[in-house]
Design brief:
mainly alpha
């Protein structure tokens, strides 16, 4: 397993390097100038030029890129241009909230995905299969911002059983924080749970169609035992790969969900930084998301190899 993991690390580092260059280049193509935003609308050209020189924006792009990568290697994220403070402190303040939201959404994704997939593949009742299909279709068809508004209208405005938005902090009041976390994490998880459920349903149906499953069924082996001992373990490896991809989408979708539910995470920080052309914050945030996605994919490969020994042998 260690050798398998070592083979994956160079490609992961290469992806991070390429992603850092693309992030840096694309941000410089976005219309607007950070120096002009900081100087204000009535600033003179001399003031704008002075700010640009102070921030190092008058240097060649390759020089700016090399300086940014060098600071990252040393662990120095530098100061924020517009928001104020150190970039590391700003990211650290929002990272816990976004991680909490993503983990909550991941819990709902796995739980609902397994439930929908197993019910859709094993239930002998047509109404149950129709309901599972309708739920997965609706979760995929309705955008998260619409789902979020509907959840707020039903549970916060109509029933008044859950708060509509905000965050307290898991360490300060765990019971209240779970109430604040429920709606945004469910809103974020529904599309991924629908994808996972459909894929698991198809994988289980293919597993149940195998000859050894049909032979065991004819021999009188209970269907529940066939599900948990044979069909589900064989269907899990590709589902784990899909779950790793969906985890990356959860991180990206958290930006929109945080705006809907006023969740003070990295999404709100990214919105502020983009509006103010705060290059250090935006590029460090984007590279952090890429690094997390690459790490998740690396862990997914390890889990896949643990579930399927043929991958390790190859």
């Amino acid at each position: 397993m260690r050798g398998y993991l070592l083979k994956r690390i160079p490609s992961a580092l290469l992806v991070l390097l390429l992603a850092s260059f693309l992030i840096f280049a694309i941000l410089r193509l976005v219309p607007g100038d950070a120096a002009e935003v900081l100087a204000g609308p009535d600033a003179s050209p001399e003031s704008v030029a002075a700010i640009r020189g102070q921030l190092g924006l008058d240097e060649p792009l390759l020089t700016q890129y090399a300086a940014w990568i060098g600071d990252l290697v040393r662990g120095d994220l530098g100061p924020s241009y517009a928001i104020g403070g150190q970039v590391a402190d700003l990211i650290g303040d929002g990272l816990g909230a976004t991680a909490e939201l993503t983990l909550g959404a991941l819990f709902f994704t796995v739980t609902l995905g397994l439930l929908l997939g197993v019910l859709g593949a094993t239930s002998r009742r047509r109404p149950v299969r129709v309901a599972v299909h309708a739920l997965t279709t609706g979760a995929l068809a309705v955008p998260p911002f619409v789902t979020g508004v509907l959840l707020v209208l039903v549970f916060a405005v109509g029933l008044r059983v859950l708060p509509s938005g905000g965050r307290i902090g898991l360490l300060e009041a765990p019971d209240l924080e779970l109430q604040y976390l429920l709606l945004p994490s469910l809103c974020l998880a529904l599309p991924s749970a629908a994808v996972l459920g459909r894929y698991l349903k198809d994988s289980l149906e293919r597993a149940f169609a195998e000859d050894y499953i049909r032979t065991a069924t004819a021999a009188g082996v209970p269907r529940r035992r066939l599900l948990w001992r044979h069909a589900l373990p064989n269907a899990l490896p590709p589902v784990v790969t899909l779950l790793g991809m969906q985890t990356g989408q959860l991180l990206g979708g958290a930006v929109l969900v945080e705006a809907i539910f006023a969740w003070p995470g990295l999404g709100q920080l990214a919105e502020q930084a983009l509006n103010r052309r705060d290059y250090p914050v935006v590029q460090d945030l984007l590279l952090l998301l890429v690094a997390v996605f690459v790490l998740v994919q690396l862990l997914t490969d390890v889990v896949y190899a643990a579930l399927d020994p043929r991958i390790r042998w190859e």
